[in-house]
Every structure is written in C-alpha cells, then in structure tokens.
Design brief:
Protein name: Probable fructose-bisphosphate aldolase class 1
Bound molecules: 1,3-dihydroxyacetonephosphate
Order of helices and strands: HEHHHEHHEEEHEHEHEHEHEHHH
CATH topology: TIM Barrel
Helix content: 40-55%
Distance between the termini: 33 Å
Catalytic activity: beta-D-fructose 1,6-bisphosphate = D-glyceraldehyde 3-phosphate + dihydroxyacetone phosphate
CATH superfamily: Aldolase class I
Pfam family, one: Glycolytic
CATH architecture: Alpha-Beta Barrel
Radius of gyration: 19 Å
Family: Belongs to the class I fructose-bisphosphate aldolase family.
Number of helices: 14
CATH class: Alpha Beta
Strand content: 5-15%
Number of domains: 1
Strand order of the largest sheet: 1-2-3-6-7-8-9-10
Number of strands: 10
Pathway: Carbohydrate degradation; glycolysis; D-glyceraldehyde 3-phosphate and glycerone phosphate from D-glucose: step 4/4
Shape: globular
Structural class: alpha/beta
Length: 342
C-alpha cells in the first residue's frame, strides 16, 4: 500500500468503508464490560478485540482502519499473531489513539483540555514502527445553551489539535483531527441550532489553527460531531440533522480535506446509521463522508458476546451487521429495510 499521507487518508474514508474506533482507554472499556458483568482483565480485553478483528466479512468489506489503544497495538491474539497483523491481513489499516485524555482546564471550570503533547514525537515514531499509519486525538468541547464553550477553551483545544496534527505528519502518520462537541454532556438540553452555532465556531477555529501550524489538509481526516440537539432534548428529524450537518461542514471544511469520518457520540446504533446515510444522500459533497464509530459499531456486538466463548460467533455476526449498515450509509444507500433483512 502507498505510504503517502494523502493516499492513506483516502483509503481510510473511500468506497463506503469506515473506521472502527476500538481505542477505548482501560477505564472506558471497563465501563463497557460492566454492562455485561465482565471483569476488565488484559486477557478479556484481548479476547474481545480479537473477536472484532477476526470478523472477516466486516474487516475485509466494510472497515478501512481500526483505531487502537496503546495496549492493543502491542498485543498478540490467542494464536500468537500480532493483532495488528490480523488487521492488516484483512486489508485494513491499524491506527492509534495518542492523546492522553481530557483533563480539567486550569482557570476554566467545567471545561477540559486534552493532554498528551509532551513526548509525542517519540511516541509517534514508536507507533509507526508498530505499524500505525494514522492516529487520533480527541478534543472535547462542552456545550450548553449560553455559557459554554468559552473562547479560551475552544482555542486551546484547537491549538493542541494542530500541534498534534503537525507532529503526526512529520512522522508520516495521518492525523484524525477530532474536535467533539458533546451531545451527551451535561445538561444536554441544548437545541440543534445552538449545536450548529458552536460547531461552526469550533471548526473555523480548528482550521485556522491547522493553517497556522502548516498542517497539510490533503493528509488528514476530520472526525467531527454531527449537528444534533442534546441527548436530553432529542427531537430534530433525520433530515434536519443531515441538512444542518452538511451546511456547517460546507461552510467550514476546505475541499482539500479528503475525508470526514463522524463520531457517534452517544447516538443509538440506528440513529447514527440513519443520519450518515441521509448526509450522503444529499450528494455533491466535496469530501468522502463516512463513519468512525465506537459505541454505535460495538454496542450490539458486546451485548451478543457477553464475555462468553460460545457467543463469539453471535458477537461477530452483530458486529458484521452494524458494519454493513454503516457501509451502506456511507454510500447513502441505507434503508430501514436493510436492518430488518438481517
Ligand atoms: P463514539 O462513536 O462512541 O463516540 O466513539 C468514537 C470515538 O473514537 C470518540 O473519540
């Protein structure tokens, strides 16, 4: 495969394929395992991810790349193969989460700054040697009806994203630039128009900082939230979410960016799929538009698996189904009938 950043970015987002975000930190995967009453041991985490990455149909046909956590990029499957080799053998690209999480931002109560820039150049070099060809950094932006986000928090997160992206490109790694405006934060009752306004402001600021940091837009992937009302105020229709999301992206994201891959952010599995399909159905978009889902790709698979060996086939079937639904959505071709067909 080509090693040019622009070719990798296209391979990550083209042809209906999308990304599997399997980069839950140790504390986040514990929360997911708690839902099936499974202890979060290194072996259980390995077994779970091995189940996903060995789902042949999904990995070969629908998943362009997998975002891994530090532990997973070094881990071996039960048969001794590196998990990264299993991903590559399926024709998918290994990637790595390199941020160290959102921490309280000094001087800004209730807002966060994502840490992880110190020593990042060295870590990227090692991750490249371990096989990563793209990376992820998530900036978290609080939102409410009037007070949040503050300008200071938006700018500092945008600057961190830009510094990270420049370091990635220096290391021949495609940066996924993820400024997430929370849909499921507190209080979670903001309107869709408030989300539009904040998303526009955040994306403008992020691209301003990327430009100042000399990041090559051809060699990156944007991972944004959709324009959607807060989790405790969800009422916008699928069409309204799609229309407003496309409008804000067209007014802020340069056409030189090859691909956009959405996060799911707490949307239900089917909502995340329906929105993505409606966005692509609008058509005439200057970038490839696909998914980079964590929860919306994995929730059904975790539940079907339940941590039991005898359920691996059921877990894989659930994962393959969600991956296929989102593949259809990335082509703008998903319908409710496709869900029922399964
Ligand atoms: P969700 O799709 O669960 O929001 O996770 C995607 C992700 O990688 C967030 O950083």
């Amino acid at each position: 495969m080509s090693e040019r950043l622009e070719d990798i970015a296209i391979a990550m987002t083209a042809g209906g394929k999308g990304l599997l975000a399997a980069d839950e930190s140790t504390s986040t995967i514990k929360k997911r395992f708690d839902t099936i009453h499974l202890e979060s041991t290194e072996e259980n985490r390995r077994d779970y991810r091995e189940m996903l990455f060995t789902t042949k149909e999904a990995m070969e046909k629908y998943i362009s790349g997998v975002i891994l956590f530090d532990e997973t990029i070094r881990q071996k499957a039960s048969d001794g193969r590196m998990l990264t080799d299993i991903i590559r053998q399926a024709g998918s690209i290994p990637g790595i989460k390199v941020d160290e999480g959102a921490k309280p931002l000094a001087g800004f109560p209730d807002e966060t700054i994502t840490e992880g820039l110190d020593g990042l150049r060295g870590r990227l070099k090692e991750y490249y040697e371990l096989g990563a060809r793209f990376a992820k950094w998530r900036g978290v932006i609080a939102i409410d009806s009037n007070k949040f986000p503050t300008w200071g928090a938006v700018r500092q997160n945008a600057q961190a994203l830009a510094r990270y992206a420049a370091l990635c490109q220096e290391a021949q790694i495609v940066p996924i630039v993820e400024p997430e405006i929370l849909m499921d934060g507190k209080p979670g009752n903001h309107s869709i128009d408030r989300c539009y306004e904040v998303t526009e402001h955040v994306l403008r600021t992020v691209f301003d900082e990327l430009f100042s940091a000399r990041v090559k837009l051809e060699g990156m992937v944007l991972k944004p939230n959709m324009v959607i009302d807060g989790k405790n105020a969800r009422k916008a229709s699928v069409e309204e979410v799609a229309e407003k999301t496309v409008r804000v992206l067209k007014s802020t994201v340069p056409a030189t960016v090859p691909g956009i891959a959405f996060l799911s952010g707490g949307q239900s599995d089917e909502e995340a799929t329906a929105h993505l399909s409606a966005i692509n159905a609008i058509g005439n978009l200057p970038w490839k538009v696909t998914f980079s889902y964590g929860r919306a790709l994995q929730a059904a698979a975790i539940a079907a698996w339940g941590g039991k060996k005898q359920n691996v086939a059921a877990g894989q079937k659930a994962f393959a189904h969600r991956a296929k639904m989102n593949y259809l959505a990335a082509l703008g071709k998903w319908t409710k009938k496709d869900e029922q067909a399964a």
